[in-house]
Amino acid sequence: MKFPARPFRALKLNASGRWSLLALLVGLAVGVASIAFEWTTQAVRRYTLGEFAGYPSEGSIGEHQFFDSAGIPFSPWMVVAVITLGGLVSGLLVHWFAPEASGAGTDAAVDAFHNRKGMVNAHVPWVKTIASAVTLGTGGSGGREGPIAQIGAGIGATIADRFRLSSTDRRIMLAAGVGAGVGAMFRAPLAGAIFAAEILYSDADMEADVIVPSAIASIVAYSVYTQSISAEVRFQPIFGNDLAHTLNSPMELLPYTLLAIILMFMAAFYVRFFHATQKLFEAAPLWPHLRPALGALMAGLVGIGLFIYSGNNREVLGILGTGYGTLQHALSGDSGLTIGVLATVALAKMLTTSLSIGSGGSGGVFGPLMVIGGCAGAAFGQAAHSMFPEWVPYPEAYAVVGMAGFFSGVARAPISTIILIRELTGDFGLLVPTMLVCALTFVFSSKWILYTHQVASRLESPAHRGDFLVDVLEGLAVKDVYLKGRRLLMIHEGETLDEIVHRLAETNQHYFPVVDSNDAMVGLFSADDVRAYLYDETLWRLANARDVMISEFHRVSPEDDLNTAMQQFTTLNVDELPVVDPENPTKLLGFLGRKETIAAYNRRILEHRRETEQDV
Hints:
mainly alpha, 3-stranded mixed beta sheet, two-stranded parallel ribbon, 7 strands, elongated, disordered N terminus
């Protein structure tokens, strides 16, 4: 079914009204898709891990469970069988129906925005929904938020195609879908809107045009999604209402700074390890659809092996699945979580996520990043509290800040991360240390980028290449570029073609101004115009410059901007334009060349890059 663009004209909507309506549609669709994805994931979990392995239910305080526990004894080694089968099924689905649905979904959405004109195949959302539900539901280490970001992106792009929108508008719709998905699944609509604008770039840049549409879509998707959640937790932060900490002294910022340094090293290691794992699986002599199964098998063995080694400590099982249950206990300061267990979960989660998602399994890295950072922060908090209790009065507070700091450094999204953690925990007392740690990890982790399709800034994005060409050229004037000192060969209007041919043989000049007895410019011709007469020598003494020239020609003035000149170069397909005095259009000042114009643009871009590097 195709939707015409006429309804917008019929309703006489302005730009804001048009985007509000489109964002509303995206939000509604993504909200329903979020419910379907969450329900499917829990259904797979209940009737695979729960039914055959007796796997304990995991989740945070604020998460709604659609299914009751199976109530059967836990069978550790059955977990390995289920997770491996899940990897195989997920790999087959992706391989057969949508190869672009493999791996973490957010990076695919970023790639579509920058490099694919916002285009996403219409079947990607449903393939991603099922494949990710299978991966996560059977115990693969990943998050739900990455897949819903790609699902939302696909829905936004598909709606844009149905209304036959331009590529620019399609990109905005795609980003709005990302924001709607994150806002709904995290139950954090503000963070979702900012995240959609910020995650596209690895430097401190943001796609401002998508914020308002993404905010509308995120609010609508959040409103739809929460209707599927029980009333007791519907408007509760995912990690509960009981997290409340305060900053009692500026001296407490010193341990938080040390935490940021530790998180920076962890971010560098994790990003490199994740990408190395991806490359190893890509190079493995296996069919593509078998690689996720192998990765899932290895992750399952690691998870169950550490579980047995730890004395059947169920907190260690947080290295499989989303890990939100273990993270909830870390945030709450559960006494059963020792420094050793927390450090084990943080480090092993890096390994199991790399195996589950880096092998091509369909899942996200949002959740794992928070679990890794949160458990690392909690371990650091406990250690620091034992040595400096007056500076570290609340060791569990470091779990909250660690979540934010690690995510900010790895995902390159500090602003949305700060907002996100506030919406997830409801803990506003840690805003200052969270800002400090997020800023430090963001600035000093710039070399390690998890989402490989992020570009540094809007200047580097193929989506804005034409925009910046116009912006830069409009900032330059013709007077700054055109050749003023070059001696030009002027042709008098009475000169014969024979005289002109001989004069042209002595110069490399291509365009020739024709002047009258008062040196006023009356016309222009090119060397190509003269060549048309070369094969008829009888005309050489009969024709003169007036016969060859054109009197109606395009010109520019020194005050014109280079974008105006470039439009004339493109429209007329000429290499030079005469520059004339604006108060006396017959007075020639010089010529502006296309090559000089492009060179000026390149110089300005290079200057901008150097200024940016110096700022960094």
